[in-house]
Amino acid sequence: QGNDEACAPRVGGIETVPPEVFAGAQYVALGHLHRPQTVGVNIRYSGSPLVFDFPEADQKKSMALVDIDGNGNTTVEMIQFRPIHDVRILRGSHAQLLRSPHSSDFIKVVLTDETPVIDAMHRLHEVFPNACELTYARDERAYEVKSFSAHVSAADPAMVIDDFLNEVRGARTT
User: Fold this and answer.
1) Strand 131-136's sheet: what is its strand order?
2) Which are the contacts of 54, defined by CB distance < 8 A and separation ≥ 6?
3) Which residue, 123, 127, 91, is CA-closest to 110?
4) Is 127 exposed, middle or buried (0-12, 13-18, 19+ CB in 10 A)?
5) What 3-state class would DSSP assign to 7?
6) Digits of tens for pLDDT over the chain (174 positions)?
7) What is the pairing mode between strands 106-111 and 74-80?
8) What is the dihedral of CA 150, 161, 168, 170, to 10 degrees?
């Protein structure tokens, strides 16, 4: 019972506070969210200064330089960060990636090879010493779902099992 909306997870929490609460403030700096966001006039989430995980790899990080003059007028200048080590996701075959330019960025590697590569990460570390994660594209694909459409007779369980094994394994029971 109760309101499902009240129990819904919230990110940041600002939606629970009306902007009127900040009336009269020249600038409101909020934290917690990883991506910089403007919520209202002079109400901003700063965002995190660095990328913290691979899902954030494409986010541009910045900081807001806020100037409030003696009359309360506010100017905000966004200054883009260029980290020493970027966070990137690279896709390709093991052989292709080994021919890539050397990089000290933090890398997630998604191999497109159909078969496992022996000692793949060790060899990739020669090109990408800060490679952090390795996955295979084939593991990211959805599995094929097969439906069992054989006629099921409750009177003969052995036949049901035999039909099932034939469908799954391609071979009948012996």
Assistant:
1) 87-92, 106-111, 131-136
2) 87, 89, 108, 133
3) 91
4) middle
5) helix
6) 444 444 444 445 556 777 778 888 888 888 767 778 887 778 888 888 888 788 888 888 888 889 999 988 888 888 888 888 889 999 999 999 999 999 999 999 999 998 999 999 999 999 999 999 999 998 876 666 656 555 555 567 777 777 777 777 777 776
7) unpaired
8) -90
Phi then psi dihedrals of residue 166, to 5 deg:
-65, -40
Residue of 103, 162, 146, 155 lying closest to 128 (CA atoms): 103
How many Cβ atoms from other residues are within 10 Å of residue 109's Cβ?
22
What's the CA dihedral at 15, 21, 23, 28 to 10 degrees?
Answer: -60
- Answer yes or no: are the C-beta atoms of 111 and 94 closer than 8 Å: yes
State residue 19 phi and psi, 5-degree precision: -60, -25
Single pTM value for the model: 0.59
Q: Cα–Cα distance between 25 and 159 in angstroms, integer? A: 77
Q: Is 7 buried (19+), middle (13-18) or exposed (0-12) by CB count in 10 A?
A: exposed
